[in-house]
Amino acid sequence: MILGIFGGIVLFIGIALAVKRQKDIVIEGIPKLNITSPAFANDGEIPVNYTGNGKDLSPELCLTGVDKNAETLAVIMDDMDHPLVGVYNHWLIWNLPVQEKIPSGIPAGKKVAELANAVQGIGYGKHRYRGPKPPFGTHRYKYNVFVLDTSLELPASANKKELLEAMEGHLLQYGYLIGQYGVN
């Protein structure tokens, strides 16, 4: 029994060491964008409706002071505390129309007709918002919002790395909102 438990721990550690740990998005030298949500405060608890244990709805994101030269918006949502990979991507959407409120409940699909054909890339293996659903403990979830001076010519098959590369040189503003969600 103890040998089995020890073997499982060794296997978990071995896998954790073999997997390349992902890092947080850090943007410097770009004007700050203020992000809030009526669903939760910064560093507050994300309500269950916005999680994988609830309705899995994307939360409304409110943007203050968007640059007048903005052409599109992009959002990347990450689990900051994944036990194996560090930062784990849950959602990507870009070519959102410039607006002060990104609506709640963005539907699944490669393109979102209701939002000027905004594109959802591959996050969590899907073309949709995948809300918090940690296997154990409390995790932090970071909603990164980018204000861009262009539309991106990027296929829906793109992942987070490809989106970040495509945005290089086109950022006007950047901001984020962090929420927490956990299971006991």
UniProtKB/TrEMBL annotation:
Q: Which residues form a coiled coil?
A: none
Q: Please give the superkingdom of this protein's source.
A: Bacteria
Keywords, A to Z?
Protein kinase inhibitor
Per its UniProt record, what InterPro entries does this chain match?
PEBP, PEBP-like_sf, YbhB_YbcL/LppC-like
Q: Note the SUPFAM superfamilies from the entry.
A: PEBP-like
* Any GO molecular function: protein kinase inhibitor activity
Q: By its UniProt entry, which Pfam families does this protein fall under?
A: PBP
Q: Which PANTHER family match?
A: PEBP (PHOSPHATIDYLETHANOLAMINE-BINDING PROTEIN) FAMILY PROTEIN, UNCHARACTERIZED PROTEIN YBCL-RELATED
Q: What is this protein called?
A: YbhB/YbcL family Raf kinase inhibitor-like protein
In which organism is this protein found? Enterococcus raffinosus ATCC 49464
